[in-house]
Amino acid sequence: MNLILVTLATFLINIPFGYWRSNVRKKSLQWILAIHIPVPFVVFLRIYSEIGFAFYTYLIIVAAYFLGQFAGVRISKIRKQAGYFTSSCLVMDYYRSLKAD
Fold first, then answer.
1. What digits encode the pLDDT tens for the residues 77-91?
2. Rounded to whole angstroms, how far apart are CA atoms 46 and 61?
3. pTM, rounded to two decimals
């Protein structure tokens, strides 16, 4: 059960960072930070939940990490195609779109 919760949390943590990464220049400092800032949170979740560092947990958590990043990029692309204003902050963009409606 802990592994499922950590996997879900890893996925959800990475969505805003993937969104941020999609709106900055590739290989810039912000792009690198968008990829690496969530890592300490994921490590903290692994330690706090006591799932350990077995090999099979790496596969699952890394997959959730990249799927969360990918989902953030897709959300950004979908919002751009729909004509919404997109900045680098997913939370503020949704807030602005709710406020405008």
1. 999 999 888 888 998
2. 9
3. 0.90
